[in-house]
Amino acid sequence: MYGANDLMARGELLIERLERLLPEPPAPTDWDATAFRWRTRNGRGWLQAEHAPHRIDPADLLCLERQKAEIVRNTEQFLAGRGANNLLLWGSRGTGKSSLIKAVFTANQDRGLRLIEVDKDDLRDLPDILDLVRARPERFILFCDDLSFEANEPGYKALKAALEGSISATPDNVLIYATSNRRHLMPELKAENREAHLVDGELHQGEAVEEKVSLSDRFGLWVSFYPFTQVQYLTLVRHWCTRLGPVPEDWAPVERAALQWALRRGSRSGRTAWQFARDWVGRSGSEG
């Protein structure tokens, strides 16, 4: 038989062992930062400050005047406390969707704009994130990059609820900006079109299509992005080559090489132009 002191000692030893197994509580949020990432570990989530966020000069984003004007206008309304919409940027890869969001953040962080990046797998924690920032004086953009869902993913319903469908209202100091290659954020199957039917002469989509459209419909503003023309692509190549190194005396060889680069990559995009310029300037030994 164990005495009372022995039981207490064994109990304290057991508690110490359990404490070593439990994750350490996250550090308090550093609200002096301007950018954050939502991180999770062992079932706990916290806002991790990013003290060196990716800063993009809006002047570097060429050939996107229409898209830039829409995003700037919506963000200006948000910062001024006027009506503004959650934003879905959708379209071709590498055309500047994420860069535009980062550029708007870069231009407005001194006015109290803050950026929180949330991975798709962590969208189920959106209620916790909203509760953390609800009473803060800053204004927050929740940034979800390269967003797409498969059927029955848990983050899908969480995002729908955060956009409009929850009994708890989204805070006035939060907007959700998402990017996707898919307009409706989910794969669209040919078989689903067969579910469409006529009612009194009107076409009604099937339940599967309606479910997919319902999420993107909750974004009040859609901004579309399309592949760049050859002229636009070469404009971006010239911009980045000039930005990263000295101006070439003869652009013809540079443009020929840039077009070959785009052909090999199968894409004329801003990302492709930037990658080519880095390679070209790096090969010339002029970068830096």
Question: Quick gist of this model?
Answer:
With 288 residues, this protein is an alpha/beta fold.
Mean pLDDT metric: 83
Mind describing the biggest β-sheet?
Answer: 7 strands, mixed
Name the strands of the widest sheet in spatial order: 2-1-4-5-6-3-9
- Total DSSP helices: 9
Low confidence ranges: none
Oligomer: single chain
Structural description of this entry:
Strands 2-1-4-5-6-3-9 form a 7-stranded mixed sheet, sandwiched between helices. A two-stranded antiparallel sheet has the order 7-8. It is an alpha/beta fold and 288 residues long. The protein has helices at 4-21, 65-79, 97-108, 126-133, 154-165, 207-217, 230-244, 252-265, 270-284, and strands at 35-41, 44-50, 87-91, 113-117, 139-144, 174-180, 197-199, 202-204, 221-225. Helix 7 (230-244) crosses helix 9 (270-284) and helix 8 (252-265) crosses helix 9 (270-284). Helices cover 42% and strands 17% of the residues.
List the helices and strands and how they pair.
Elements: H1 4-21, E1 35-41, E2 44-50, H2 65-79, E3 87-91, H3 97-108, E4 113-117, H4 126-133, E5 139-144, H5 154-165, E6 174-180, E7 197-199, E8 202-204, H6 207-217, E9 221-225, H7 230-244, H8 252-265, H9 270-284
Parallel strand pairs: 1-4, 3-6, 3-9, 4-5, 5-6
Antiparallel strand pairs: 1-2, 7-8
Helix pairs in contact: 7-9, 8-9
Describe this protein with a few key phrases.
single chain; 288 residues; alpha/beta; seven-stranded mixed beta sheet; two-stranded antiparallel ribbon; 9 strands; 17% strand
